[in-house]
Amino acid sequence: MADLAAPEIARWQHIEAQARNVLSRYGFSEVRTPILERLELFVRSLGDETDVVQKEMYQFEDRGGRKLALRPEGTAGVMRYVAARGQDAQDARLYYIGPMFRSERPQAGRRRQFHQLGAEAIGAAHPAADAEVIALQLHLLQSWGLSQCRVHINTRGLGTDRVNAQQQIRELLLAKRELLCVDCQRRLDTNVLRVLDCKNPECARIVSALPPLTSFMSAEARSYLDEVCRSLTALEVPFELRPNLVRGLDYYQHTVWEITHPALGAQDAIAGGGRYLLNIGGRAIEGVGFAIGLERSLVALAAERPESPPDRLPLVWFVAQGERAHEEGLRLLQSLRWRGIAAQMCVDRRSMKAQFRAADRAKAMFVVVRGDAELEKGIFLLKTLATGVQEELDLPSLMDRMKPLERGDAVLLR
Ligand code: HAM
Questions:
Q1: Most exposed residue of 152, 223, 246, 270, measured as fewest CB within 10 angstroms of its CB?
Q2: Distance in Å, CA 257 to ligand 1 centroid
Q3: pTM, rounded to two decimals
């Protein structure tokens, strides 16, 4: 688990702000659900045979003996919220940004606390809805500056398709049981579809010789996928069909997808999603959604866009000599801040030299000097540190020149 702070935090804030803007253009509003939920919610929603539930959840009992877990993903919590809202949440379009927890072995691309940006569109199955959500996800990634993402899609079909596919694939794989890795040998009995995306090279070789998942599915499931593909083409979203993509969570039915990025190495999924059906509190909730891994997005972004965005506003530093100038400084700083300008000074009355040093350390862009000489002349000295340019200004002209700034505005003064 990592601490997030300057300078990297600037990238986090940048992508989050960008994402909120894009999401609102698609009609999504934010939901913040608790980080802690009842264990039962995840076991039932994600599936008790999934790796996340079997191996990766942080779970414990509270003092009242309730079994709880730190959320390993966001969809289940959002669906609990939707179920509790009843009819009010029909057709809700919700998004979330926040930390998730999986107690995996840490390695490149895998953290125990990581962050997801997820979105869920509640509503009955319609292929165009799936395609629209994939288009939104790609839009988000592109708005951050990621141009090399690839969308891989497949279908898990409906419940009956899955049972059928599971049976047939199991039969085909039983003949090769001894060649599979230990995990996959267990999966043959518990969750055979997971064998299809095992990363073990020998398992992958065996899987590549299997017929595609769709060949075991009904015409309905296949035509749903065809319709999603047509809608994606209409939305100008490039994609590739990946016949063995299954995804690691059991709530999916029909469309599933993953988005990869070439900068990521072995853990190359930057994001994943799909259509799902969940039963919560006696209510069946259908929807389609996705989650983007933010740590992985930032790794990809650093590869595509090495220059980082500025992590703070351009700073004005006030340097004061003597009691009167010091008090003037405090007043001036406050009025600059109210105008939207970042301003600071050493409030502990240091020598002028020490104040200049502090301005340098803080990477101030401008220094406003009010020493004895300036007091006498009734002016302020404005220094632009990068250029060394100095100007003498009275208070009204100084205030006039200070404009509210955005991050990245290089020039304070016109
Ligand atoms: P997921 O594929 O389990 O899907 O996670 C989505 C993304 O979270 C992954 O593609 C990856 O970028 C990131 N991620 C997962 N585990 C880690 C980790 N240990 N360290 C760093 N990043 C990680 C879901 O969670 C579903 N809830 C997505 C969804 C929403 N499906 C429908 N709606």
A1: 223
A2: 12
A3: 0.91
